[in-house]
Amino acid sequence: MKFLRGFLIGLQFFTAIPITKQFPMDKKHLKRTIQAFPLLGLFQGLIYSVLLFILLEYTPFSHLAAAFLLWIMTILLTGGIHLDGWMDASDAYFSYRDKLKRLEIMKDPRTGAFGVISIIVLLSSRFLFIYEITDNASLNSFILIAAIPFFSKALMGVLLLTVPSAKQEGLGYLFQKAATLKALRIYPVYLLAVVILFPNTWVLLAAAVVCFFFARVKVMKWFGGITGDVLGAAVEGTELILWMTLWLLHYFVMA
Description:
Elements: H1 2-14, H2 27-35, H3 37-58, H4 63-76, H5 81-93, H6 99-107, H7 113-135, H8 139-162, H9 170-176, H10 187-197, H11 202-223, H12 228-252
Helix pairs in contact: 1-2, 3-4, 3-8, 4-7, 5-6, 5-7, 5-12, 7-12, 8-11, 8-12, 11-12
């Protein structure tokens, strides 16, 4: 029951799905939420794949229209929570200031020019990848699309519990203090199950692992640790790399 509640807490925090029920926010439930991060991502991914399948197979919409609607869904389903982190982290990084000043910039509710530019680059790149994937979609495409947020949410959980917090406040710190590394013991089970059942996903797993090690090093160098915004930026950055990986697979492997 606590695991189900943890999953629902994740839906409340990280999606726009309206769940009005109030759940306990104690450490035990937040720990279960962290353990359910990959399943939350898989749930999102299944929504993306099913939506795209329906649009391509059961509607008169063109591939361009289907790609646009899927692109919109990737924004609406999360409520833009990770995109907000991407913009704030971009503003902070491109300020080229010291770590403390970057943390102050991320707390500023105003969005700067670099935040706007970075979100345009991110979303336009994602649309390109989605459109060209949609234009050549196959059964493997739907499977791999479902796996993209699965791997990005797994990365979020691992970063959360393996990288120190940059500040003693905020959403990231709240979750981090609710669990230890032991909470991640379930993650290899998830990953092995997905890769064994769907062998083609190993390519995305490999790309996500590279993203993790890159993010782990750069987060400490640039920000001195994680924050909620930094985690959101890591999720968005990883998903962009995974969309790009799938796009490249369509050109060089699945063509």
